Amino acid sequence: MERNTQHDQAHLGRNTPSIVSPEAWEAARQQMLVKEKALTRARDALAAERRRMPWMPVDKTYEFEGPNGKVTLLDLFEGRRQLIVYRAFFEPGVFGWPEHGCRGCSLGADQVGHLAHLHARDTTLVYASRAPQADIARLKGRMGWQMPWYTITDSFDADFGVAEWHGHNAFIRDGERVFRTYLINERGDEAMGTVWSYLDMTALGRQETWEDSPEGYPQTPPYKWWNWHDNYDSEASPHPKWVEVSDAKEATWRDAETKA
Question: Whole-prediction pTM value?
Fold first, then answer.
């Protein structure tokens, strides 16, 4: 296997952390864990504020080109309640064209988890670029990407702040009315790719009972809705055994939190 010679020849500097016993290492980790838990709670609080962001109506009809022809922004929802559109740079003028998309956008695409888990929370993720569909299909096939990927044909990118830089726009629909609910871009995109990072930016969140959400928002018990990505359609309700396993784990976590 070819190795990175420059990396192999590098040596650690003199200002490395101290070398300690297992007991001292665990004590240091426990101190750090306090800060990590504070960060987790702060992230949860931020997501709760996102769920209370005002909604902006989308009154213009935007049109995209898809594998099967022209579609609207409403069509991109695929019948689900929520939609996240990532503006990826793959088009003439972008470094890598026509063989590759933007290196940063491509790295982000490599991070995208299985979409079935988002679909289980009534949320659709799509990518959108200005490249023709034939080029998009070729790139997806080469890179092994599975997300739906559409061609922007109008001012969508300019109207939603992603004409010059990448970004994730979140939308929600009420029947056929579409609303913009949030935007994550720039360094915020670095954390995107997991089920949780996507859901936490949406108006409805993870839709779990522990979340601080406005009254009336859809919520179900945590963990119970989890499933194998190829099993959601065949098993609509939580499996009794999984309920038993997850309940036991929750009890263990609660006991640990109480002792802490």
Answer: 0.92
Strand partners for 152: 64
Residues counted in the chain: 260
Ranges under pLDDT 70 in the chain: 1-10, 12, 260
How far is Cα of residue 99 from the mean position of the Cα atoms in its chain?
A: 25
Domains of the chain with CATH codes: 56-200 (3.40.30.10), 221-260 (no CATH)
Q: What angle do CA 197, 198, 203 make, to 5 degrees?
A: 115
DSSP assignment string, the chain: ----HHHHH----S-PPPP--HHHHHHHHHHHHHHHHHHHHHHHHHHHHHTTSPPEE--S--EEEETTEEEEHHHHTTT-SEEEEEE---STTSTTTTT---HHHHHHHHH---THHHHTTTEEEEEEESS-HHHHHHHHHHHT--S-EEEE-SSHHHHTT-SSS-EEEEEEEETTEEEEEEEEEGGGGGGBTBHHHHHHTSSSTT-BTTS---TT---B-TTTT---TTTTTT--S--HHHHHHHHHHHHHHHHHHHH-
| 194-205 pLDDT tens trace | 999 999 999 999
Omega of the bond prior to 17 within 30 degrees of 0, cis?
Answer: no
